[in-house]
Design a protein that fits this description.
Radius of gyration of chain B: 22 Å
Largest sheet of chain B: none
Distance between the termini of chain A: 48 Å
Shape of chain B: globular
Oligomer: heterodimer
CATH class of chain B: Mainly Alpha
CATH topology of chain B: MetI-like fold
CATH architecture of the largest domain in chain A: Orthogonal Bundle
Order of helices and strands of chain B: HHHHHHHHHHH
CATH superfamily of chain B: MetI-like
Distance between the termini of chain B: 37 Å
Shape of chain A: extended
CATH class of the largest domain in chain A: Mainly Alpha
Order of helices and strands of chain A: HHEEHHHHHHHHHHHH
Structural class of chain A: mainly alpha
Largest sheet of chain A: 2 strands, antiparallel
Structural class of chain B: mainly alpha
Chain lengths: ~300, ~260
C-alpha cells in the first residue's frame, strides 16, 4: 500500500471521506448537492426581498423616525397618489424604450460585421473594442463622458473651431440617453452575436443569388433568423436601462432621475425605508412582469440557462 | 444607390460605434497625463504629476485595496457556487428544473437597486453591515448568472460518455470529477471567474449601498469625487480601471480566446 504515490493515497482518502459523507444511497440527490451553494447565495437575495416586503408595509413615524408596529398599505397608496413617482416611472420607461431601440440599431451591424468578417485581425479589434469598455465599469465611463462632453471637452472644443457653441451637453437628457446606449452596446452585441453565428451563411448567399437585394436579404432572411439574439438583447437592455442608477445620477445631473434614483433618495435623503422598499418592490414587479411578457411573446431567446441540444 | 447598400450603412455604424466605445477611454488616458490643473482639450503638456498625486494618496490606496479584497471574496464565493450549479443543471435530470432556472436567474431579473437594498437590509439585520466581506458576497450573488452561463457554455463541449468511461475504468466519483469533468469545463470556469472578478472590481451601486465612509471601494470613491470637482487626478485613478480591463482582456484572449463569445449556443 505504501508503495503508491502520496497523491494516490490522498485521493483515496478524499474518496473515502466523500463516500462516508455522501453515501451511494444519496447519489440520486447529487445534482441538488451541487446546486446547494448557488441556491444559498440567491437565498440571501430572497431574504433581502422579504425584509423589503416587511418594511414596505410599515409606516414611518415622522416624530421618532421609527417604523410602525402594525402593517398598512399606506406606502403603496402614497406611491400611487404622489405624481412625482408616476413622472419618474414614465421617464424611465420612455428612456428605456428609446435606449433599447437605438442600442439594437447600433448593435446589430456591429455583431453582424464581427461574426461575418473574414479578417481575424478585424474581428479581434471589434472584440477588444467591445470588451474594454465592458470591463471598465460604469462610473469610470460616465466620468469619461463628462470629460468628452463637458464645457472644455473635445466636442465643444471642436465645435468652437467651427465657430459654434459652447453647448451645454452634460446633465441633459440627450447625453444621458447617449451614455446609456454606449453602456448597453457591449451587452447587446454579445447577446446578438451567437444568434448570427447560428445562421447558415449559405442562406444569405442563396437569397442574393435568387435576386434579393442586400436590404431584402437582411429583412427577410437575416433579421428573422437572428430573432432569438435580438429578443434577448432587447429584454436585457430594456431592464438594465429602466433600473439604472449611475448614468442618471452622473450624466443626468439630478434632473433626469430614474426609479432607482428615487428609491435611493427615499432611503438616504428622506430616510423613509418603508416608502423606499415599496417603490423598489414595485420596480421589481414592474420589471419582472415586463420581462415575463416580452419573453412570453417572443420566446426565451439566447437567455435560456439550459445547455443546448439536451432535454429541450 | 450603392452608398445606401447594407454593407455601406453597416460599415458606417460600426465606425461610429468604434469611436463611441473608445472615446471615453482615450480621453481619460489623455487627460491623466496633462500638466495643467484643469481638464481641457487638447491636454496641456505632458506630466506624471497626477499619477504621483494619486500614488501618494492614502485614501485612494485603501479604496483600491478594499476593491481588490471585495473582488477576491466575490470570486472565491461565486466561482465554486456557479460552476457546481452549472454542472448540476447540465448533468442531472432534476425535478422542478424550470422553477430552478427562474430562481437562479433572479439576480439577473431583480433590478440591481432592489437587490442592493434588500441585501443591505438583510446584512443590517444580521449585524454585519459596514464590514467588507458582505460586499464581496453581494457581488457574487448579483453576478452569479454570468458564472453559470460561462460554465454551461463549456459543459456543452463535454461528452458525458467521457465521465462514464472514467467510471467504467474504475475511477471513483471524486477522481472522475477532478480528472475528467473539471478539466473539460475549465475554460468556462476561468472565463466566468475573470468576469466575476472584474465585475466586482467595478461594482458601484451595491458598493454604494453596502459601504460606509470607512469602507468605500474605489468606484464609490471615484463617484464621490465626480460629484465635487472634476480634476485630472480622477483621470489618473480611472487609468487603474483601464489597466485592469486590459489585463483581463489579454488573459481571457490567451486562455480561452475572445472568439468563444461569438459561438452559437
Amino acid at each position: 500500500m505504501s508503495r503508491y504515490p502520496i497523491t494516490w493515497r490522498l485521493l483515496d482518502l478524499v474518496e473515502a471521506v466523500a463516500a462516508l459523507l455522501w453515501p451511494r444511497a444519496l447519489h440520486r440527490y447529487t445534482g441538488w448537492l451541487l446546486l446547494l451553494p448557488a441556491i444559498a447565495l440567491v437565498g440571501l437575495l430572497v431574504a433581502g426581498l422579504a425584509y423589503m416586503g416587511d418594511s414596505s408595509l410599515r409606516l414611518l413615524d415622522t416624530e421618532t423616525f421609527e417604523q410602525s408596529e402594525d402593517y398598512t398599505l399606506a406606502n403603496y397608496r402614497d406611491l400611487i397618489e404622489k405624481p412625482t413617482y408616476f413622472t419618474v416611472l414614465m421617464r424611465s420607461t420612455g428612456a428605456a424604450t428609446l435606449v433599447t431601440v437605438l442600442t439594437l440599431v447600433l448593435a446589430f451591424p456591429y455583431a453582424y460585421s464581427m461574426v461575418r468578417t473574414r479578417s481575424a485581425w478585424r474581428r479581434k479589434l471589434l472584440l477588444v473594442s467591445l470588451f474594454l469598455p465592458f470591463f471598465i465599469g460604469q462610473v469610470v465611463r460616465a466620468y469619461g463622458w463628462l470629460v468628452v462632453l463637458g464645457k472644455t471637452g473635445i466636442v465643444n472644443t471642436l465645435l468652437a473651431h467651427l465657430g459654434l457653441g459652447p453647448f451645454k451637453m452634460i446633465y441633459t437628457y440627450p447625453s444621458l440617453v447617449f451614455g446609456l446606449v454606449q453602456y448597453m452596446l457591449p451587452f447587446a452585441v454579445l447577446l446578438i452575436a451567437p444568434a448570427i453565428t447560428a445562421i447558415d451563411e449559405e442562406l444569405e448567399a442563396a437569397s442574393e443569388s435568387l435576386g434579393a437585394t442586400g436590404w431584402r436579404t437582411l429583412r427577410h432572411v437575416i433579421l428573422p433568423l437572428a430573432k432569438p439574439g435580438l429578443v434577448a438583447s432587447a429584454v436585457v437592455v430594456f431592464t438594465l436601462t429602466i433600473t439604472d442608477y449611475a448614468m442618471p445620477v452622473v450624466l443626468g445631473g439630478g434632473t433626469n432621475d430614474f426609479i432607482a434614483n428615487a428609491v435611493y433618495d427615499a432611503f438616504f435623503r428622506i430616510s423613509d425605508n418603508g416608502l423606499g422598499s415599496a417603490l423598489a418592490l414595485t420596480l421589481v414587479v414592474f420589471a419582472s412582469t415586463l420581462v415575463a411578457v416580452m419573453l412570453g411573446l417572443m420566446g426565451a431567446g439566447t437567455l435560456g440557462m439550459r445547455p443546448s441540444g439536451r432535454g429541450r | 444607390m450603392k452608398l445606401l447598400s447594407p454593407r455601406a450603412v453597416f460599415a458606417a455604424i460600426v465606425g461610429f460605434n468604434l469611436v463611441a466605445l473608445a472615446l471615453p477611454t482615450l480621453v481619460i488616458l489623455g487627460a491623466s497625463f496633462t500638466e495643467g490643473n484643469m481638464i481641457v482639450f487638447p491636454p496641456e503638456g505632458f506630466s506624471l504629476r497626477w499619477y504621483e498625486k494619486v500614488l501618494g494618496s492614502e485614501s485612494l490606496q485603501e479604496a483600491f485595496g478594499r476593491s481588490l479584497w471585495v473582488s477576491l471574496i466575490c470570486t472565491a464565493a461565486g466561482v465554486p457556487a456557479g460552476a457546481l450549479a452549472a454542472l448540476g443543471m447540465a448533468r442531472f435530470r432534476l425535478r422542478f428544473s424550470g422553477v430552478l432556472q427562474i430562481y437562479l436567474l433572479l439576480p439577473f431579473t431583480i433590478p440591481l437597486i432592489a437587490s442592493g437594498i434588500g441585501l443591505m437590509l438583510f446584512f443590517g439585520e444580521i449585524g454585519v453591515l459596514g464590514e467588507l466581506w458582505p460586499v464581496g458576497i453581494a457581488c457574487a450573488v448579483i453576478n452569479l448568472p454570468f458564472m453559470i452561463w460561462a460554465v454551461l457554455a463549456s459543459v456543452n463541449g463535454l461528452d458525458p460518455d467521457l465521465e462514464n468511461a472514467a467510471a467504467n475504468c474504475g475511477a471513483p466519483p471524486v477522481q472522475t470529477f477532478l480528472t475528467v469533468t473539471l478539466p473539460a469545463v475549465m475554460p468556462g470556469v476561468i472565463t466566468g471567474g475573470l468576469i466575476l472578478f472584474v465585475l466586482a472590481f467595478n461594482e458601484f451601486l451595491v458598493s454604494l449601498l453596502l459601504t460606509d465612509a470607512h469602507t468605500v471601494t474605489l468606484p464609490v470613491s471615484i463617484y464621490n469625487s465626480i460629484r465635487s470637482i472634476i480634476t485630472p487626478d480622477l483621470a489618473a485613478v480611472s487609468v487603474v480601471y483601464i489597466v485592469v480591463a486590459g489585463l483581463a482582456i489579454v488573459l481571457l484572449d490567451r486562455i480561452v480566446g475572445l472568439e468563444v463569445f461569438l459561438r452559437s449556443k
